[in-house]
Task: inverse folding
């Protein structure tokens, strides 16, 4: 599929006071995204939200959301759980 | 001075404790070597715990893994830049 073979997209995530940039393929799954984030955060349990200028929006839990984030080049905020 | 930087390298302009330091870094170097070069350069003036680079949005993005380093180099290539602004603290 043309989408899957196109160039990776740079997506940034925010965690505590740090910003990280990832290159994501357009067909990356939610679990693959978590695997990329995991080594960069302190805890084992963390959750992802869509980050908007005004603050956090909905929690990210599905592959479809990840796909939308990449297409729209949205930012992600990551929070430790407990 | 952009043209005096060797093809195989980039210049890092490092901001640390309100002063600037520059180093030449081989594009092929692994992140561990880059960190070591920065450490050696800053050793006379102090220690740092984090290195970040300034991206095209002006944000300071973490530079700690080989993947981070690839993303940073990709950005330089895309913008035809040879200088990477670094913040160490």
Result:
């Amino acid at each position: 599929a043309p989408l899957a073979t196109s160039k990776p997209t740079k997506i940034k995530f925010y965690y505590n006071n740090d910003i990280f940039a990832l290159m994501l393929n357009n067909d990356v799954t939610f679990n693959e995204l978590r695997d990329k984030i995991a080594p960069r955060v302190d805890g084992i349990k963390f959750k992802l939200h869509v980050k908007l200028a005004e603050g956090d929006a909905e929690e990210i839990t599905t592959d479809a959301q990840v796909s939308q984030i990449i297409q729209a080049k949205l930012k992600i905020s990551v929070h430790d759980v407990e | 001075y952009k043209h005096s930087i060797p093809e195989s390298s980039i210049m890092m302009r490092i901001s640390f404790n309100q002063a600037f330091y520059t180093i030449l870094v081989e594009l092929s170097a692994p992140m561990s070597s880059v960190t070591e070069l920065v450490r050696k350069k800053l050793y006379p003036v102090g220690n740092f715990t984090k290195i970040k680079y300034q991206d095209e949005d002006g944000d300071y993005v973490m530079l700690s893994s080989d993947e981070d380093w690839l993303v940073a180099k990709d950005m330089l290539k895309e913008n035809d830049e040879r200088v990477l602004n670094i913040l160490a603290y």
Observations:
- Chain B has a mean pLDDT of 95.
- The CA atoms of residues 53 and 72 of chain B lie 8 Å apart.
- The longest helix of chain B spans residues 66-78.
- The helical segments of chain B are 31-42, 66-78.
